[in-house]
């Protein structure tokens, strides 16, 4: 089975080298340097990552201070070195460096961040996504939508044409149906609604 967590990571690293440290991304207010710093913190510094991982932990002074210090230190690195750390990935002791969680978290993480860089550029076109990757993204989606920042006030039904469907959230007349390829539905679910190529309609589920 293809390790898409690894291949998407390397795709992102190559893209970062190509566009440089000051290119825009779909992550609000982040340049590509900010994105690279975030990834290295996520890979290598769990305690610093905790300082930015949620609204609760971000308010803990010790964790917030550590996160700020790491961001500052990594942000001052040479771009080539920083991107090299992105490509290298986490160590075996990192929570995102091993086991089923590595496949789930990193496949989605790096697919989405590749698109964060690609789709922030003018004239972007959709990549051809392998069916196996589409299936992995779809398999990860039920777990991912139960984590922040995805907290819908009403129900959402996701329909991956030819693959499957599932619903999430509280049903009412304002419920939404989102249909498209899994790779596009994932982008929609993780806050990239304006760039995701999906069909959205209101429907009571």
From TrEMBL:
InterPro entries: CHP03085, DinB/YfiT-like, Maleyloyr_isom, MDMPI_metal-binding
GO MF term list: metal ion binding
NCBIfam families: maleylpyruvate isomerase family mycothiol-dependent enzyme, TIGR03085 family metal-binding protein
Protein name, as recorded: TIGR03085 family protein
One Pfam family cited in the UniProt record for this chain: MDMPI_N
Organism: Brevibacterium ravenspurgense
Taxonomic superkingdom: Bacteria
Residues covered by the Mycothiol-dependent maleylpyruvate isomerase metal-binding domain: 11-65
């Amino acid at each position: 089975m293809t390790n898409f967590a690894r291949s998407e990571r390397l795709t992102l690293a190559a893209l970062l080298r190509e566009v440089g440290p000051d290119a825009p991304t779909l992550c609000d207010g982040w340049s590509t340097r900010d994105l690279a710093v975030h990834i290295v913190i996520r890979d290598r510094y769990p305690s610093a990552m905790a300082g930015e991982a949620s609204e609760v932990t971000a308010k803990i002074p010790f964790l917030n201070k550590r996160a700020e210090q790491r961001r500052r230190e990594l942000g001052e690195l040479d771009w080539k070195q920083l991107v090299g750390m992105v490509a290298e990935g986490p160590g075996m002791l990192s929570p995102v460096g091993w086991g089923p969680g590595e496949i789930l978290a990193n496949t989605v993480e790096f697919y989405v961040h590749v698109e964060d860089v690609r789709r922030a550029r003018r004239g972007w076109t959709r990549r051809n996504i392998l069916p196996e990757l589409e299936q992995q993204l779809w398999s990860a989606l039920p777990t991912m939508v139960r984590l922040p920042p995805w907290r819908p006030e009403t129900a959402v039904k996701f329909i991956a044409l030819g693959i499957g469907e599932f619903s999430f959230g509280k049903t009412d007349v304002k419920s939404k149906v989102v249909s498209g390829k899994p790779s596009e539905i994932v982008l929609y679910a993780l806050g990239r609604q304006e760039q995701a190529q999906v069909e959205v309609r209101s429907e009571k589920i």
